[in-house]
Amino acid sequence: MPDMRVSFCGVEFPNPTVLASGILGTTAPLLARVAASGIGGVTSKSASPRPRAGHPNPSVLKWGAGFINAVGLANPGIEAQVKILRETRRLMQEQGSPARLIASIFAESVDGFALAAEALSRAEPDFIEVNISCPNVARELGRPFASDPEDTASVTRAVKNATYLPIIVKLSPNVTDIVEIALAAEEAGADAIAAINTVAGMVIDIRARRPVLANLEGGVSGPAIKPIAVRSVYKIYEAVSVPILGIGGISSGEDAVEMMMAGASLVGVGSAAYWLGPDGLGRIRDEMADFMAEEGFASPTEMIGLAHAPTEDEDA
Ligand SMILES: Cc1cc2nc3c(=O)[nH]c(=O)nc-3n(C[C@H](O)[C@H](O)[C@H](O)COP(=O)(O)O)c2cc1C
Fold first, then answer.
1. 264-277, pLDDT tens digit by residue?
2. Residue 46: CB within 6 Å of ligand 1?
3. Number of domains within the chain
4. Share of the chain above pLDDT 90, in %
5. Catalytic residue check, 9
6. For residue 316, what pLDDT is reported?
7. Would you state the pLDDT for residue 312?
8. How far is CA 116 from CA 35, 138, 240, 271, in A?
9. If both were cysteines, with which of 37, 122, 169, 218 could 281 make a disulfide (CB 3.0 to 4.6 Å apart)?
10. pTM score above 0.90
11. Is the CB of 9 under 6 A from ligand 1?
Protein backbone atom coordinates (compact mmCIF):
# COMPACT_ATOMS: atom_id res chain seq x y z
CA MET A 1 0.00 0.00 0.00
CA PRO A 2 1.31 3.53 -0.77
CA ASP A 3 2.10 5.87 2.10
CA MET A 4 -1.41 7.12 2.93
CA ARG A 5 -0.45 9.67 5.59
CA VAL A 6 -1.69 13.26 5.37
CA SER A 7 -0.96 16.27 7.51
CA PHE A 8 -3.97 18.38 8.53
CA CYS A 9 -3.21 21.61 10.43
CA GLY A 10 0.16 20.07 11.27
CA VAL A 11 -1.46 16.94 12.77
CA GLU A 12 -0.61 13.68 11.03
CA PHE A 13 -3.48 11.35 10.04
CA PRO A 14 -2.62 7.78 9.01
CA ASN A 15 -4.85 8.24 5.94
CA PRO A 16 -7.36 10.89 4.72
CA THR A 17 -10.60 9.10 5.73
CA VAL A 18 -12.58 10.26 8.77
CA LEU A 19 -15.84 9.09 10.33
CA ALA A 20 -18.27 12.07 10.13
CA SER A 21 -20.09 13.29 13.23
CA GLY A 22 -23.37 11.71 14.30
CA ILE A 23 -22.97 8.30 12.72
CA LEU A 24 -21.62 5.53 14.99
CA GLY A 25 -19.94 8.26 17.05
CA THR A 26 -22.17 8.04 20.09
CA THR A 27 -20.27 5.72 22.45
CA ALA A 28 -16.61 5.06 23.30
CA PRO A 29 -16.65 1.35 22.27
CA LEU A 30 -18.21 2.22 18.89
CA LEU A 31 -15.76 5.06 18.21
CA ALA A 32 -12.84 2.80 19.14
CA ARG A 33 -14.23 0.00 16.96
CA VAL A 34 -14.49 2.31 13.95
CA ALA A 35 -10.95 3.58 14.67
CA ALA A 36 -9.75 -0.04 14.51
CA SER A 37 -11.23 -0.45 11.00
CA GLY A 38 -8.28 1.36 9.42
CA ILE A 39 -9.97 4.75 9.15
CA GLY A 40 -7.74 7.83 9.59
CA GLY A 41 -9.86 9.58 12.22
CA VAL A 42 -13.16 9.46 14.08
CA THR A 43 -15.52 12.31 14.97
CA SER A 44 -17.77 12.08 17.99
CA LYS A 45 -21.48 12.99 17.90
CA SER A 46 -21.99 16.73 18.48
CA ALA A 47 -22.30 17.43 22.22
CA SER A 48 -24.04 20.47 23.70
CA PRO A 49 -23.66 22.10 27.14
CA ARG A 50 -26.86 20.46 28.40
CA PRO A 51 -28.21 17.02 27.45
CA ARG A 52 -30.71 17.04 24.56
CA ALA A 53 -33.41 14.44 23.98
CA GLY A 54 -33.64 15.19 20.25
CA HIS A 55 -36.75 14.86 18.10
CA PRO A 56 -39.43 12.15 18.36
CA ASN A 57 -39.46 9.23 15.93
CA PRO A 58 -39.54 8.73 13.02
CA SER A 59 -36.27 10.67 12.91
CA VAL A 60 -34.19 8.78 10.32
CA LEU A 61 -35.42 7.38 7.01
CA LYS A 62 -33.62 5.63 4.18
CA TRP A 63 -35.02 6.70 0.81
CA GLY A 64 -33.97 6.08 -2.80
CA ALA A 65 -30.60 7.83 -2.89
CA GLY A 66 -29.59 8.29 0.73
CA PHE A 67 -31.02 9.21 4.12
CA ILE A 68 -33.08 11.99 5.57
CA ASN A 69 -32.77 12.63 9.30
CA ALA A 70 -33.99 14.94 11.99
CA VAL A 71 -32.31 13.34 14.98
CA GLY A 72 -32.28 16.83 16.49
CA LEU A 73 -28.82 16.62 18.08
CA ALA A 74 -29.76 14.13 20.78
CA ASN A 75 -26.72 13.90 23.08
CA PRO A 76 -25.89 13.35 26.76
CA GLY A 77 -24.35 16.82 27.31
CA ILE A 78 -20.74 17.90 27.70
CA GLU A 79 -20.02 16.46 31.13
CA ALA A 80 -20.97 12.95 29.99
CA GLN A 81 -19.22 13.58 26.66
CA VAL A 82 -15.87 14.35 28.36
CA LYS A 83 -16.06 10.87 29.92
CA ILE A 84 -16.95 9.28 26.56
CA LEU A 85 -14.02 11.00 24.85
CA ARG A 86 -11.56 10.03 27.62
CA GLU A 87 -12.72 6.44 27.42
CA THR A 88 -12.43 6.52 23.60
CA ARG A 89 -8.84 7.79 23.89
CA ARG A 90 -8.01 5.06 26.38
CA LEU A 91 -9.49 2.31 24.18
CA MET A 92 -7.76 3.66 21.07
CA GLN A 93 -4.43 3.76 22.91
CA GLU A 94 -4.97 0.25 24.23
CA GLN A 95 -5.53 -1.07 20.70
CA GLY A 96 -2.56 0.95 19.36
CA SER A 97 -4.77 2.88 16.92
CA PRO A 98 -3.00 5.67 15.01
CA ALA A 99 -6.39 7.26 14.16
CA ARG A 100 -7.08 10.83 15.27
CA LEU A 101 -9.96 11.89 17.51
CA ILE A 102 -12.16 14.88 16.60
CA ALA A 103 -14.65 16.15 19.20
CA SER A 104 -17.74 17.81 17.77
CA ILE A 105 -19.58 20.51 19.68
CA PHE A 106 -22.96 22.18 19.26
CA ALA A 107 -24.68 24.92 21.29
CA GLU A 108 -27.65 27.24 21.16
CA SER A 109 -25.58 30.39 21.84
CA VAL A 110 -22.10 31.80 21.25
CA ASP A 111 -21.29 31.44 24.96
CA GLY A 112 -22.56 27.86 24.89
CA PHE A 113 -20.14 27.02 22.08
CA ALA A 114 -17.24 28.47 24.12
CA LEU A 115 -18.34 26.48 27.17
CA ALA A 116 -18.57 23.24 25.20
CA ALA A 117 -15.17 23.79 23.55
CA GLU A 118 -13.51 24.52 26.88
CA ALA A 119 -15.06 21.44 28.52
CA LEU A 120 -14.34 18.94 25.73
CA SER A 121 -10.75 20.18 25.40
CA ARG A 122 -10.16 18.64 28.84
CA ALA A 123 -10.52 15.22 27.21
CA GLU A 124 -7.59 16.07 24.90
CA PRO A 125 -9.02 15.21 21.50
CA ASP A 126 -6.87 16.21 18.50
CA PHE A 127 -9.40 18.75 17.18
CA ILE A 128 -12.61 20.51 18.11
CA GLU A 129 -15.18 20.46 15.30
CA VAL A 130 -17.71 23.27 15.57
CA ASN A 131 -21.13 22.24 14.28
CA ILE A 132 -22.88 25.51 13.43
CA SER A 133 -24.75 23.95 10.54
CA CYS A 134 -27.34 21.39 11.68
CA PRO A 135 -30.52 22.09 9.67
CA ASN A 136 -32.78 19.99 11.89
CA VAL A 137 -33.15 22.25 14.89
CA ALA A 138 -34.19 25.41 13.03
CA ARG A 139 -37.86 24.98 13.95
CA GLU A 140 -36.84 24.96 17.60
CA LEU A 141 -33.81 27.31 17.63
CA GLY A 142 -34.05 29.50 14.56
CA ARG A 143 -31.69 29.47 11.65
CA PRO A 144 -28.23 27.94 12.18
CA PHE A 145 -25.22 30.18 12.89
CA ALA A 146 -23.73 28.97 9.57
CA SER A 147 -26.47 30.87 7.71
CA ASP A 148 -24.77 34.18 8.37
CA PRO A 149 -21.12 35.33 8.06
CA GLU A 150 -21.22 37.48 11.21
CA ASP A 151 -22.78 34.74 13.35
CA THR A 152 -20.22 32.29 11.95
CA ALA A 153 -17.39 34.67 12.86
CA SER A 154 -18.75 35.23 16.40
CA VAL A 155 -18.91 31.51 17.17
CA THR A 156 -15.51 30.88 15.57
CA ARG A 157 -13.82 33.63 17.61
CA ALA A 158 -15.44 32.46 20.86
CA VAL A 159 -14.41 28.83 20.33
CA LYS A 160 -10.89 29.83 19.27
CA ASN A 161 -10.52 31.78 22.53
CA ALA A 162 -11.87 28.89 24.59
CA THR A 163 -9.51 26.12 23.47
CA TYR A 164 -5.84 25.44 22.84
CA LEU A 165 -6.81 22.87 20.17
CA PRO A 166 -7.08 23.48 16.42
CA ILE A 167 -10.70 24.07 15.42
CA ILE A 168 -12.61 22.87 12.36
CA VAL A 169 -15.73 24.91 11.56
CA LYS A 170 -18.44 22.83 9.88
CA LEU A 171 -20.52 24.65 7.28
CA SER A 172 -23.98 24.27 5.79
CA PRO A 173 -24.87 23.95 2.11
CA ASN A 174 -28.24 25.57 2.86
CA VAL A 175 -27.01 29.08 2.11
CA THR A 176 -26.79 31.37 -0.90
CA ASP A 177 -22.99 31.55 -0.87
CA ILE A 178 -21.02 29.03 1.18
CA VAL A 179 -17.73 30.72 0.16
CA GLU A 180 -18.72 33.91 1.97
CA ILE A 181 -19.32 31.87 5.15
CA ALA A 182 -16.05 29.96 4.77
CA LEU A 183 -14.14 33.25 4.43
CA ALA A 184 -15.84 34.60 7.56
CA ALA A 185 -14.80 31.49 9.50
CA GLU A 186 -11.22 31.69 8.23
CA GLU A 187 -10.90 35.39 9.05
CA ALA A 188 -12.26 34.74 12.56
CA GLY A 189 -9.54 32.16 13.22
CA ALA A 190 -10.80 28.77 12.01
CA ASP A 191 -7.85 26.41 11.54
CA ALA A 192 -9.83 24.35 9.04
CA ILE A 193 -13.24 24.16 7.34
CA ALA A 194 -15.52 21.10 7.22
CA ALA A 195 -18.09 21.04 4.40
CA ILE A 196 -20.84 19.98 4.18
CA ASN A 197 -23.50 19.20 6.76
CA THR A 198 -26.77 17.75 5.49
CA VAL A 199 -28.92 19.40 2.81
CA ALA A 200 -32.36 20.56 4.00
CA GLY A 201 -35.11 18.38 2.55
CA MET A 202 -38.44 16.63 2.98
CA VAL A 203 -39.93 13.25 2.10
CA ILE A 204 -43.73 12.86 1.95
CA ASP A 205 -45.60 9.58 2.44
CA ILE A 206 -48.25 9.93 -0.26
CA ARG A 207 -50.52 7.28 1.30
CA ALA A 208 -50.45 8.97 4.68
CA ARG A 209 -50.50 12.32 2.88
CA ARG A 210 -47.98 13.92 5.18
CA PRO A 211 -44.22 14.25 5.67
CA VAL A 212 -42.60 11.08 6.98
CA LEU A 213 -40.38 12.65 9.65
CA ALA A 214 -42.04 13.69 12.90
CA ASN A 215 -40.07 16.94 12.53
CA LEU A 216 -41.57 17.24 9.01
CA GLU A 217 -38.29 18.33 7.44
CA GLY A 218 -34.77 16.99 7.84
CA GLY A 219 -31.25 16.82 6.50
CA VAL A 220 -30.53 14.80 3.36
CA SER A 221 -27.28 12.81 3.29
CA GLY A 222 -25.67 10.00 1.29
CA PRO A 223 -25.00 9.57 -2.45
CA ALA A 224 -27.70 12.10 -3.44
CA ILE A 225 -25.67 15.01 -2.04
CA LYS A 226 -22.18 14.17 -3.35
CA PRO A 227 -22.21 16.65 -6.27
CA ILE A 228 -23.41 19.39 -3.90
CA ALA A 229 -20.58 18.59 -1.48
CA VAL A 230 -17.94 18.37 -4.22
CA ARG A 231 -18.97 21.75 -5.64
CA SER A 232 -18.94 23.33 -2.18
CA VAL A 233 -15.44 22.05 -1.45
CA TYR A 234 -14.22 23.07 -4.92
CA LYS A 235 -15.43 26.66 -4.42
CA ILE A 236 -14.18 26.94 -0.85
CA TYR A 237 -10.74 25.62 -1.86
CA GLU A 238 -10.38 28.45 -4.37
CA ALA A 239 -11.16 31.07 -1.72
CA VAL A 240 -9.51 30.02 1.55
CA SER A 241 -6.00 28.95 2.50
CA VAL A 242 -6.91 26.74 5.49
CA PRO A 243 -7.31 22.99 4.83
CA ILE A 244 -10.73 21.45 4.15
CA LEU A 245 -12.42 18.33 5.50
CA GLY A 246 -14.75 17.34 2.64
CA ILE A 247 -17.95 15.50 3.66
CA GLY A 248 -21.07 14.47 1.76
CA GLY A 249 -22.05 11.35 -0.14
CA ILE A 250 -18.72 9.56 0.06
CA SER A 251 -19.09 5.78 -0.07
CA SER A 252 -16.10 4.50 -2.05
CA GLY A 253 -12.40 5.15 -2.55
CA GLU A 254 -13.13 6.77 -5.90
CA ASP A 255 -15.65 9.14 -4.26
CA ALA A 256 -12.95 10.06 -1.71
CA VAL A 257 -10.45 10.74 -4.50
CA GLU A 258 -13.01 13.00 -6.22
CA MET A 259 -13.44 14.96 -2.99
CA MET A 260 -9.67 15.35 -2.62
CA MET A 261 -9.31 16.52 -6.23
CA ALA A 262 -11.98 19.15 -5.44
CA GLY A 263 -9.68 20.41 -2.68
CA ALA A 264 -10.25 18.36 0.48
CA SER A 265 -7.23 17.27 2.55
CA LEU A 266 -9.40 14.88 4.59
CA VAL A 267 -12.60 13.11 3.55
CA GLY A 268 -15.50 12.46 5.93
CA VAL A 269 -17.76 9.43 5.65
CA GLY A 270 -21.19 9.50 7.28
CA SER A 271 -24.18 7.70 5.78
CA ALA A 272 -22.03 5.03 4.08
CA ALA A 273 -21.12 3.79 7.55
CA TYR A 274 -24.66 2.38 7.73
CA TRP A 275 -23.96 -0.13 4.97
CA LEU A 276 -20.18 -0.54 5.35
CA GLY A 277 -20.60 -1.18 9.08
CA PRO A 278 -18.23 -0.15 11.89
CA ASP A 279 -15.58 -2.66 10.83
CA GLY A 280 -15.88 -1.95 7.10
CA LEU A 281 -14.88 1.71 6.89
CA GLY A 282 -11.22 0.87 6.19
CA ARG A 283 -12.40 -0.27 2.76
CA ILE A 284 -12.52 3.32 1.52
CA ARG A 285 -8.83 3.77 2.38
CA ASP A 286 -7.99 0.49 0.62
CA GLU A 287 -9.91 1.51 -2.50
CA MET A 288 -8.14 4.89 -2.50
CA ALA A 289 -4.81 3.07 -2.30
CA ASP A 290 -5.80 0.86 -5.28
CA PHE A 291 -6.67 3.95 -7.33
CA MET A 292 -3.36 5.61 -6.38
CA ALA A 293 -1.39 2.53 -7.40
CA GLU A 294 -3.23 2.38 -10.75
CA GLU A 295 -2.75 6.08 -11.47
CA GLY A 296 0.79 6.40 -10.09
CA PHE A 297 0.20 8.64 -7.07
CA ALA A 298 2.80 8.20 -4.31
CA SER A 299 0.84 10.12 -1.66
CA PRO A 300 -2.80 11.26 -1.21
CA THR A 301 -1.42 14.77 -0.78
CA GLU A 302 -0.60 14.82 -4.50
CA MET A 303 -4.34 14.60 -5.29
CA ILE A 304 -5.49 17.58 -3.20
CA GLY A 305 -7.02 20.23 -5.45
CA LEU A 306 -5.87 18.49 -8.60
CA ALA A 307 -9.16 19.26 -10.38
CA HIS A 308 -8.15 22.94 -10.23
CA ALA A 309 -4.93 22.51 -12.18
CA PRO A 310 -5.06 24.16 -15.57
CA THR A 311 -5.40 21.76 -18.48
CA GLU A 312 -2.53 21.59 -20.97
CA ASP A 313 -4.52 23.83 -23.35
CA GLU A 314 -5.00 26.48 -20.68
CA ASP A 315 -1.32 26.17 -19.73
CA ALA A 316 -0.13 26.94 -23.22
C1 LIG B 1 -28.23 10.36 11.45
C2 LIG B 1 -27.29 11.49 11.24
C3 LIG B 1 -26.84 12.23 12.34
C4 LIG B 1 -25.96 13.28 12.19
N5 LIG B 1 -25.52 13.98 13.29
C6 LIG B 1 -24.61 14.98 13.15
C7 LIG B 1 -24.08 15.65 14.29
O8 LIG B 1 -24.39 15.34 15.45
N9 LIG B 1 -23.17 16.63 14.07
C10 LIG B 1 -22.75 17.01 12.82
O11 LIG B 1 -21.92 17.91 12.69
N12 LIG B 1 -23.23 16.37 11.72
C13 LIG B 1 -24.13 15.37 11.86
N14 LIG B 1 -24.59 14.71 10.74
C15 LIG B 1 -24.11 15.12 9.40
C16 LIG B 1 -22.93 14.26 8.94
O17 LIG B 1 -21.82 14.39 9.79
C18 LIG B 1 -22.51 14.64 7.50
O19 LIG B 1 -22.07 15.99 7.47
C20 LIG B 1 -23.65 14.46 6.50
O21 LIG B 1 -24.43 13.32 6.80
C22 LIG B 1 -23.13 14.34 5.07
O23 LIG B 1 -22.27 13.23 4.92
P24 LIG B 1 -22.75 11.78 4.35
O25 LIG B 1 -23.45 12.04 3.05
O26 LIG B 1 -21.48 10.99 4.21
O27 LIG B 1 -23.67 11.22 5.37
C28 LIG B 1 -25.49 13.64 10.89
C29 LIG B 1 -25.92 12.89 9.78
C30 LIG B 1 -26.79 11.81 9.93
C31 LIG B 1 -27.22 11.04 8.72
1. 999 999 999 999 99
2. yes
3. 1
4. 90
5. no
6. 47
7. 64
8. 24, 20, 26, 25
9. 37
10. yes
11. no
